[in-house]
Amino acid sequence: MSEGDRELRDLMVRYQSGSLEAFQEIYAALAPGVRRYLLHLSGRFEAADDLLQGTFLQMHRSRGAYNPAYAVKPWVFGLARNTFLMNRRAARRWAEVHDQLGSRDEIRRCIAALPPEQAEALLLHHEWGFRFDEIGGMLGISAQAARARASRGMADLRAALNRRQRAGA
User: Fold this and answer.
1) pTM of whole model > 0.70?
2) What is the DSSP string of 15-70?
3) N or C: more exposed end of the chain, with fewer CB within 10 A?
């Protein structure tokens, strides 16, 4: 392990213990390279910036799972890749929903009319690509309850869009 790898590992161990300064140093050391990698994957500056924030958010969520026997840099780049893939899957799923259900404005209006807990679970899963166990953890509910909320939300969204379509035809 190189000296730089050891320094990052030591910073990560400090960060796991709650050091904000350690996080700031990790971010300063890795963010430029991770951003370039995400720009390569996404091909868009705005997307790379959003994905970079998502990567470091994921690092924060996963910091307890980091094993100091491994180098930090490849671990963070792996998180970046997973963040990119999760975002791409979510975008594809959402595009399929748009194609099947209606225009972006119609969908936005119908989602706004859903019960808030359904809209939140639906968007967390279909828009941002979170798994139901992750959604459950965020909302303080079980994965099954998160799945049920998202499912009810999607069913209600489809019904509302079908009603709009029939009314406009």
Assistant:
1) no
2) HHTT-HHHHHHHHHHHHHHHHHHHHHHH--HHHHHHHHHHHHHHHHHHGGG--TTS
3) C
